[in-house]
Structure formats: structure tokens, C-alpha cells
Fold this sequence. Notes:
The strands form four sheets. Strands 10-20-11-19-12-18-17-14-13 form a nine-stranded mixed β-sheet. The protein has a six-stranded mixed β-sheet with strand order 2-3-1-4-5-6, sandwiched between helices. A three-stranded antiparallel β-sheet has the order 7-9-8, covered by helices on one side. 26% of the residues lie in helices and 22% in strands. By secondary structure, it is α/β, with parallel strands linked by helices. The chain starts with 19 loop residues before the first strand and ends in a 32-residue tail after the last strand.
Amino acid sequence: MSIEASLSPSGGATLSARPRIAVAGFQHETNTFAPIPTTFETFERGGAWPALQRGQAVLDTLPAINMPMGGFLKAAEGLDLVPLVWCFAEPGGTVRDEAFDTISAMIVDGVAGAGAIDGIYLDLHGAMTVESYPDGEGELLRRLRALVGPDLPIATSLDLHANMSALFVEHASSTAIYRTYPHIDMAATGARAGRLLRLELARGAPFAKAWRPLDFLVPIQAQSTRREPGATLYRTLAALNSEGLDSLDFAFGFPPADVHHCGPAVFAYGSAQAVVDEAAAQFATEVTACESALAQPLIAAQDAVAQAMARAGQASRPILIADAQDNPGAGATGDTTGLLRALIDAKVQRALFGMVYDPQAAKAAHGIGLGGSFEADIGGHCGPIGGPPVRARVEVIALSDGRFTFTGPMYGNATANLGPVAALQVLDAGCDLTLTVGSTRTQNADLAHFTHLGLDPTAFGVVAVKSAIHFLAAYEPIADSVILAHAPGANPCQLDTIPYRNLRAGVRLGPDGPAFEE
């Protein structure tokens, strides 16, 4: 069970009294339809999550943050840890080979130089696509297995949106998957991964595994565990228990990824193959029975704004609008203008919208200073997918360097590093709209995006955010109601309109949708 472990007479490996575990993290959710590629520098600089960490910095930085690595480290008493590297890049386009090879080498070479180890823990996403590798995580595991052999335990944790392949299942010893969306249980998932690793080490034998990919895709907006049927599905998942079953998890998949293994899947681990097979099959049946309920269309942007304005006149709390298809947290550009234009055209009142990715507007605002006004071409700079820029005269009402501490249940305690940020008041006649612009793509899933600028979302009648589901954890408690808007963007939610080319034949494009044909 160790790269350099001595073998006992029976042929098994000798386990140290304090297992020595190499730990690393490499997270990216790849939207293969997004126009902005993901480079090494994207991982290196950070943003909503910390920049790339190496060695001791992994142990110093991650325990305080709601990430799987943090949960694993906090629950690592009795383990000797060998920290290698941890990094996270904002979801975006396909990962460049150079970035993948560089970070993978940090991990593989780190393991090679670590001396005798008893296992590995990897904090992964599960939906990374690389220029040369449709399954980035599977390829990373393949490289590690080529070094350490087939028997060393490699425990992993994955995002609820993982697209898991046979390659990954073959090489990972175990995996724990988030059970909430919004992801408020990321640290808890890392701790569960640690439990599985300890269990495998104690047994001295690999888990029996069962993997059941499903034959339909689920749009992102239908995957929330705060809504039905997701809430019931995950309650059912947690309740399934039997002798010989150590772990049962489910990934909804990440549909904006044109890869063969895209889609939902059930994973079970335990000591008895028949038991894990039955558990995986049973839960796959539960999910399939909910297929029709997982078709949840969005509302056209103009209609969403009209509904929000009508409700805001009668509500004591804000009406939330989510610009779901321009969610940077699913790889979208964050600068599309469909919803922004709908808000201005409707002459919306007491409205707050953000954060739009627009480094030029943020830079101009900082140059002009508080109280200054200028003509801005807002958004629409990342290509034609989300419409042209919106021309508006704006006044600068707040400025920030983009460094602040998140306060909500998902990002809480993480320190943002978003570059210059500005709050702008749109001065178009008849419109009362406050808009925030920033220099780094990031979804608005935390009230601190606004409050660090002195903006109180509860003081507005309508609050619109660039997010799909994650915003619910922080914003829904302050809201009267939530509307998911349909405006152009690179996080397509109507799956039968997506130009897929690489899915497996027969998979349905959304619940009850048409089957993909090769």
C-alpha cells in the first residue's frame, strides 16, 4: 500500500502507525462551449477562491475555507500529511494542455518525491476537459497509477456536477461527491473522502465499486437540492443504508460539456459487490423516475423583469432574478447584456444588478473617481454570444480593489481578489438601476459582492445576479421570490438546442428530450 513499503510474507503491504498521505487539489469545471480558454495563469492567480498554493501553504490556507481540501485537512488527525499543490480556476473554456501538464506534473512529481506514502487524497471537480483529454481527472489518475501501481489507495472528492468516465472509476479507489447545490457541504465532502480513505487503509483491501451512468442529461437550473425533485432525491440517497455498503453518491453531471461521458451517474462503494450493485441500481431507478420533473424551463428575460417589477410593488423583500445562462460559475463569460438591456428597457425601479465582467468599465470608473460620470459601453466584450455592449451614461457611486471577505454559507471566510470593482448608477431617464462591474469573472453567490461596496441588497425592490443556483444559499433568505431568467449566454440551459458532437449515442438531451444521434 506504499510506493516504498516493505511487503509482508503474505504479500500484503505494511501500513505505518500514522498513515502518510500525499494531498493535492486540482479543480476545474470545463464548459466546452465557453469562448475563454483556461490557462495556467487562470489557476495561478485565483479570484473567488485562493490562488495556487504549494507545500505548507496548502495546510495553512485551506482548513478555514469551505472546500473539500479544507474539510479533509480538519479531519486529518492521526495522519501524516504531505501537501503538494492545490488550485482552482473559475469555470471556463477548455483547459490548455500546457496548464494541465504543468499542474499534473506538480502532483505526480510531488508523489514521486514524497518517499514512502500509504495513500493519496485528491480534491477534484470531475468535469475537467483538456485540449487533449476529454476527462482531465481520469488522465491525472492514469498518470498517478502509472507511478504508484494499482493498489495504493487514491481517495477523491468530486463536485455534484461531475461527469464521470469509466477511466476515472477504474483508477480512483473511492470518491465522495457533494450532496448540496448550492454547494454548502464542500468541506463536509472532503471529510467524507477522508473517512473512506481511512476505511480502505484499515481493511487493507480495495472497495467493491458500482457505477451507473444514466441515459439523460439534466439542465443546471433543475439540479438544485433546495428545489424538487433534487431535495427528495438527496434525502433518499442519505437514507439508503445496508450492511456492506460504505458509500453511495450521485452526480447530476455538467451538461455544458461536449464529452462522451457527460451526464448523471450513481456511485457506490463497499465491502460486498452484490450490495453495492443493488444500491447503485436502486438509486439509479429513483432518479430515472424523476426524469420529467427535472425539466424546468427558464422565463424570457423581458417577462422575468415584468414579473419582478409587478411583484416588487407589493413585496416587502427583494424579488431575485438570476441571469442563469450567463453564470460565470458554469463557465459563461459574465458579460452578456440580454438581462441588462431588459432591465433598462423596462425602466426598472429600485433595482440592483451584478456583477458584470467588464474590466474596461471598472478601470474607467476608478480613473474618473467617486461622483464622476461617463458614457460606458457595458458588457458584450467577450464575443457575440450574449449581445453587443449596452451604451449608458453612468455615475460612479462606489469603488473597491476587489479584495473582501465572503460572508455567505458557500464562499464564507474565503478572501476575494477580483481586481478593480465599481458600482455605477445608470442615469438613463426613467431608470433606477445600480450596476456593479468587476475585473475578474466570478458568479455572484454571496451578499458581499454588493455589501463590500456599501450596497444593501435588502434596500432594493429587484436584485439581479449573474448566477444560476449558487446564489440561492445567500440570497434566498432575504428574498420574497426567485425568477430564473432566460437570456443569451454560454451556460445553455435548453439542452436540445446545444450543438453537441461527442455525446454517447442515445443519451437524451434533457429530461424527456430527443436522443443524441452520432
